[in-house]
Amino acid sequence: MDHEVRQFVTLKKIRQGELKSSLHMKIENFHELLNGEAIDSKKITFLEDDSVWWTSIQLADRGTDTFAEFTFHFNASDTVRKAGMYFYFVSGTVNGKQIEPLVNIRITKKESSAKYFAISSSNSLEVQITMTLKRLGITSEKCFMNFDSTVQKKTIISNNKKLLNEEKYSDFTFIVENTRFPVHRNILSAASPIFNEIFAMVSLTNSSEFIIGSTTPTILQHFLNFIYWAELPENLIEVSRQLHQLACRYKIEELENICTSVEFNNLTKENAFNVFVWAEQNHLEKLMDHAWNIIQFEILEVFDSKPVPPSESLSLMLKNKIKKEKLLQSYRMKIRELNTETNTFLNTLIP
């Protein structure tokens, strides 16, 4: 039996950090599908992002009712996956009836999927589906709580919040600059393999205290707030690098990704070099590349008074000279003061 399939796709950018793509699909002779036979929709992207989604539809019999079984597939782009701050939402209609939205599906890996069943009383199946890709805001505690959407998870977070800094039930203490932080070994051991090693080590000496260096009491409090109840500080942009340092030290990967995303989202020509140096120190190659693209254009501004070198020479200079040698080192002082030195350097490249 032939199954006529018609499909239409629309792509939209709603606002910064929120993209939508919609599928309108109609299948004739749907009830004639064989057992296990599925019809796949087109693979659909988003404006300004390479993530891909599609749906597979097959017939499912449950008792006296016939259902359409939908499997929504989502392949995340590297940018979305590594950011650790994106969700996708599925909404729409099946034969004119609203489906129950599949919301708050957090993107943490390359491939993910979700299922949905809808009663199909007609041999013709008409589907209108909208997939929304949304980036979570990072400056609001209220928005960040969307990371844990179920009531049970919120209850756990609320209970953990009551525990932090409560000496009555704590079994360990961190010390930073003479400030004491009562904590709980079981919570921190579950969050970090490094904390687990620390607790095992100090238990051999019957100690219940540990001094944490190279940070401040304020930063450690933010760090513990994140581990205990998933809270980010309102001034995250200002403290993200200090938090990233602790996240790397104690292997809290989710916090690492969030702090790195802060640098991505706030990259400008004014701070590009500062970000490049920080990314280089922390071996964040993708962030280095993004910052370097901006730096190149800034460096090229001082070439306005000189003839443009051959493209091969310019490419070689940017890759092998500026990035690794003299001009990049000088750029650390002040790029606008490099005009004379840059002209001299260029004269060696232009016959």
UniProtKB/TrEMBL annotation:
Location of the BTB domain: 170-236
InterPro entries per UniProt: BTB/POZ_dom, SKP1/BTB/POZ_sf
Highest rank taxon of the organism: Eukaryota
Designated name of the protein: BTB/POZ and MATH domain-containing protein 2
